[in-house]
Amino acid sequence: MELYIGELKKQQALGIEQFERDFTVQLAVERAFQAAIECCVDTGNHLVSVYGLGRPEEQRDIFSILAKAGYLEDEYARQMAEMVSFRNRIVRIYWAIDVRRLYRYLQEDVSLLERFRMFTLQILEAEESRD
To answer: Fewer beta carbons within 10 angstroms: which end of the chain, N or C?
Structure first.
């Protein structure tokens, strides 16, 4: 997850005009978002399973389950569920990605992924301190 977030942060320095002209960068950003979001989903799903918090019907439900269990704030869980929808668009409707929207996600939403990474590290540290 750290590798993908790092790549996204590196690309944040680009201006919108440069981003729109560089298809290779667009593809790199799409892939980094896809992989980072999948890392969040996989990690969240693991936590839901290990702690017996329920069964998500869809991947986006993982975050609301974590919120109901008190691990995440409701608004943040909603934002992460939206990130899953964004990942689904990248994967399933790849031919219709709005470049300006992709750039907006790059500028505004990488912090959501960083926050989940920190949440994951806190859980791991808490687990290690119990052992």
So the answer is: C
Tell me what the mean pLDDT of segment 55-82 comes to: 96
Q: Does domain 2-130 have CATH number 1.20.120.580?
A: yes
Both structure tokens of 16: 């919108």
DSSP state of 13: T
Q: In which residue are the tokens 């960083």 written?
A: 114
80 touches 63 (CB < 8 A): yes
Closest C-alpha to 47, from 68, 74, 65: 65
97, 91 Cβ separation under 8 angstroms: no
The predicted model scores a pTM of 0.92
Structure tokens at 53: 């918090």
